[in-house]
Amino acid sequence: MKSIIRIILLSVFFVMITGCSSEETNEEIRQVTNVGIGDEYIDKLSEVLGELVEVEEESDNGSQEEETPLISYDVIDDELSNPILEVEDKKWEHYQQDIDKHTQLWQLFASIVPSKEREMVTGFYVFTDGVGNTLGAVEPRYENPEEWLLSLDIADSDNTKELIDTLIHEFGHLLFLNEEQVPFSEATFADLENDQVLERLKTNCLQYFTSYGCSAPESYINQFYQRFWVEIIEEWESLDVETNEEDLDHFFTNHEDEFVTDYAATHPSEDIAESWSYFVLSYKPENETVADEKISFFYQYPELVELRTTLLSNLYNVLTTVHE
Ligand SMILES: [Zn+2]
């Protein structure tokens, strides 16, 4: 009797071991395959667009104009509805009336990013600040921070490569700052605007404190911050890197091989979004620099590797359909 139990136990144990190891192998194969399929799409996309990410970030040579919101939409069932003109001025009418363009911009984002990954986007804004400067942005709705708005500059929308880069970057923000990653219930906007409450929330946060609150321990942004920012945050905080160009230059020069672009050095949230863009749109680097390690950071998450493949495949399909 005892020996039978032992045999049964042994075989259960054996099944557990083999079950476990074959699952791991399958996972590894799936991961390797996903990277390979993604890379093949990069090959094909490069044939259509040239190199997807520029090694050197081009400096903005557009004139700095004030940002003007032009028209806003609600996103309902994947379609743009309830258009509202945000400004009344003949100067902007040609942009405001170009509904085909607005729809085309939204459709591009909706075709690249799988719907379950962008459920939080319930509004779409078209704005302009002239050619160059800001191309896109995302922000949570003030009245309901679980919902997000995507904004795009219509004046920049003909630059396909930059538009794609921006859409992947903005999607990165949604991926790394959404409610699951940074629980908003802990810190609503009102709390964030009250200095005393904000200080208390920051002190009580053991993880990275983002612009929207305390990140979850296992969140991508907290893991990224703990690995790449803990040692430089004091220097970053002592400067005004976000708005002062000299400070940005100084900080970026001090850490040149740590950032994929100079814009990445402006804020940890921009750093992860820029690195994410490089992760999606280029091959896995050799990890010779910290900037390379930031791109490789995402390869430890099978779900992100899979998402990379999906984004690239969608991108290829949408671009080749347009080009036909
Ligand atoms: Zn950004």
Automatic annotation (TrEMBL):
<protein>
    <recommendedName>
        <fullName>Lipoprotein</fullName>
    </recommendedName>
</protein>
